[in-house]
């Protein structure tokens, strides 16, 4: 049995790590996962950077930002698999929710254009939005969404970093108008009756990589066997998580004090896609709200990394072509492929794709010909082709 | 003091903050301000515009400080980074002790080191104190539970204190458990039955 230490932030989408350890998928590979909870993303990054952990649960854009020299860091990171797809929500303060309702918005939870237009109309400029970390899909998707609707950042949108645990306080203190956060924090804002949920981020981009398994690139390349074992146990855990019977047990396990220390019924909402969106108890049902395995969810597409690299370059003024190139090297489909080779688990034939091109689930070429990708449209209908990005 | 640095400490535990302030003050390391409130952290740091920000690693607001590393305008935002890139050893020992530092760009590791050293020493010392406190609290809790369990046994079986304790110990040994755990089980069961 080999011990491997992994840093994570106690969030619902850390489930593959917790399940791999608790349900024995790691043990089957001869691994004992030492899971180390961290209070912030900068802590996770530093733990990985300075070798306090071997691998980490990380916001998909974080290792790419490091590669672009944004924020602190010394060791180059790579993302060897995607841990979760989607799973985040946008919400607003009670005051803004009232204005939206008065303006006739139905909180339909599906139409990102309608929700965004209503939000822009209901709030003063600049719109103040809290996100957990500057380099996150939360920030990227908000900027993409609001810019497309005519409210470009940073002139008109003030994106502020607020720890998820302080999001409800920041809303209540009128420091922010809206927020974008991963579960269970959105549900907790509703539970504390300080805000309403407005939109799942999957309404902006139907299938986006949310968290990745990151490693120091040097470590991943020097430890291919160990790295392979870890990836396989996590992909197996993801497949288990996707079973219809798993949410109940998963919510139960993650609710323990060692992990998320929250009541299971709040965790189960996001796992089943049945969210409570207002303090009055209104509910919405979102298929694929948080996906771990469907549609090759765990595969680290180079095109996803390039999309993130381009967005980061746009908002920080870096060279776009250079940034996409640097980003592309961070996601490692080659390492992922090597890990799954001979395991009986299927992998896509390509390592890059046109993002946003699928309007419905589509079967694609794969090693065993069994992979169906989920729909991945952007709300504005645009596509991202890494070979002709602009 | 010509070389005095302006230092901000973000720490919700006022006792720990005081210890760090004392350590830095006795080393004559500059003007020190303590922030204990999480809200508006970024705005207040911008207003103070310090040379160094020290923050507890276990504080989730650390991510708010990361925002300052995205220096759009160095005049309004101190260009901050996690300690000095060239001194990984210093950064690592700081992280292990539970403190991280954000310094204005250009402040050399040499000038930062005494500040971090003082903070690290205090963090370690405080960590030990807290562990001791936890341990003794737990010991007290366990003793209380054992006393209650003894009381329950004395009443239910009509035995004296010594015999009640012997019974608890025997059970614990037979089951390979701690006396405190057996006592807790008994107290819980008694609570359910009463």
Give structural notes:
Chain B: Residues 126-187 form the ANTAR domain. Chain B: Residues 6-120 form the Response regulatory domain. The complex is a heterodimer of chains A (390) and B (194). By secondary structure, chain A is an alpha/beta fold. Chain A is built from 16 helices and 15 strands. Chain A has helices spanning 15-22, 25-28, 41-49, 61-67, 94-102, 112-122, 137-148, 167-172, 185-191, 217-222, 224-241, 246-254, 264-272, 302-316, 320-328, 333-340; strands at residues 2-8, 31-37, 55-59, 77-86, 88-93, 127-131, 157-161, 178-182, 195-200, 209-216, 274-276, 283-285, 290-291, 362-364, 371-373. Chain A is globular. Chain B is of the alpha/beta class. Chain B has 2 domains: 5-107, 3-Layer(aba) Sandwich (Rossmann fold), CATH 3.40.50.2300; 133-193, Winged helix-like DNA-binding domain superfamily/Winged helix DNA-binding domain (Arc Repressor Mutant, subunit A), CATH 1.10.10. In chain B, β1 (5-10), α1 and β2 (30-35) form a beta-alpha-beta unit. Chain A binds chain B through residues 39-43, 46-47, 50-52, 70-72, 74, 132-134, 154, 160-166, 169-170, 173, 175, 316, and chain B through 38-40, 42, 57-67, 69-70, 72, 81-82, 85, 88, 91-92, 95-96, 100.
């Amino acid at each position: 049995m080999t011990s491997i230490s992994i840093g994570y932030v106690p969030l619902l989408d850390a489930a593959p790590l917790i399940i791999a350890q608790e349900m024995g998928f790691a043990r089957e590979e001869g691994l004992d996962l030492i899971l180390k909870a961290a209070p912030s993303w900068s802590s996770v990054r530093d733990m990985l950077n300075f070798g306090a952990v071997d691998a980490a649960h990380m916001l998909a854009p974080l290792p790419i930002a490091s590669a672009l020299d944004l924020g602190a860091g010394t060791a180059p990171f790579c993302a060897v698999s995607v841990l979760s797809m989607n799973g985040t929500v946008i919400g607003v303060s009670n005051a803004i929710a009232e204005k939206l309702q008065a303006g006739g918005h139905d909180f339909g939870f599906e139409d990102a254009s309608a929700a965004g237009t209503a939000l822009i109309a209901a709030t003063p400029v600049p719109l103040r939005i809290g996100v957990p970390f500057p380099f996150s899909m939360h920030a990227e998707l908000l900027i993409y969404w609001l810019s497309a609707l005519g409210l470009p950042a940073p002139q008109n949108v003030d994106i502020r970093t607020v720890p998820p645990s302080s999001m409800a306080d920041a809303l209540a203190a009128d420091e922010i108008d809206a927020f974008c956060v991963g579960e269970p924090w959105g549900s907790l804002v509703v539970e504390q009756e300080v805000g309403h949920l407005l939109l799942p981020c999957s309404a902006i981009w139907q299938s986006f990589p949310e968290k990745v398994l990151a490693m120091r690139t040097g470590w991943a390349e020097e430890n291919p066997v160990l790295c392979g074992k870890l990836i396989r146990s996590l992909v197996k855990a993801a497949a288990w998580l996707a079973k219809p019977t798993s949410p109940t047990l998963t919510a139960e396990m993650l609710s323990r004090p060692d992990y998320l220390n929250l009541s299971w019924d709040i965790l189960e909402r996001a796992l089943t896609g049945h969210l409570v969106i207002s303090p009055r108890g209104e509910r919405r049902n979102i298929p694929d709200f948080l996906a771990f395995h469907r549609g090759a969810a765990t595969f680290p597409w180079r095109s996803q990394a390039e999309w993130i690299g381009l967005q980061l370059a746009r908002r920080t003024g870096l060279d776009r072509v250079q940034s996409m190139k640097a980003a592309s090297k961070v996601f490692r489909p080659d390492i992922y492929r090597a890990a799954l080779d001979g395991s009986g688990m299927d992998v896509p034939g390509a390592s890059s794709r046109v993002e946003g091109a699928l309007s419905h689930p589509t079967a694609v070429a794969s090693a065993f010909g069994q992979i169906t990708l989920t729909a991945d449209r952007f709300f504005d209908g645009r596509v991202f082709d890494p070979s002709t990005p602009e | 003091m010509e070389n005095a640095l302006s230092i901000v400490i973000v720490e919700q535990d006022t006792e720990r903050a005081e210890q760090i302030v004392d350590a830095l003050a006795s080393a004559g390391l500059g003007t020190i301000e303590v922030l204990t409130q999480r809200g508006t952290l970024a705005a207040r740091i911008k207003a103070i515009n310090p040379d160094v920000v020290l923050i507890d690693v276990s504080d989730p607001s650390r991510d708010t400080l990361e925002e300052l590393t995205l220096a759009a305008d160095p005049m309004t935002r101190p260009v901050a980074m996690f300690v000095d890139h060239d001194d990984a050893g210093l950064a690592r020992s700081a992280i292990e002790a539970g403190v991280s530092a954000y310094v204005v760009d250009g402040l050399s590791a040499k000038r930062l080191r005494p500040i971090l050293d003082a903070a690290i020493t205090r963090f370690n010392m405080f960590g030990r104190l807290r562990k001791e406190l936890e341990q003794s609290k737990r010991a007290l809790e366990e003793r209380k539970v054992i006393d209650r369990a003894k009381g329950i046994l004395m009443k239910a079986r009509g035995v004296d204190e010594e015999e009640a304790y012997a019974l608890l110990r025997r059970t614990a040994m037979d089951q390979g458990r701690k006396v405190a755990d057996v006592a807790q089980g008994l107290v819980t069961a008694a609570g359910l039955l009463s």
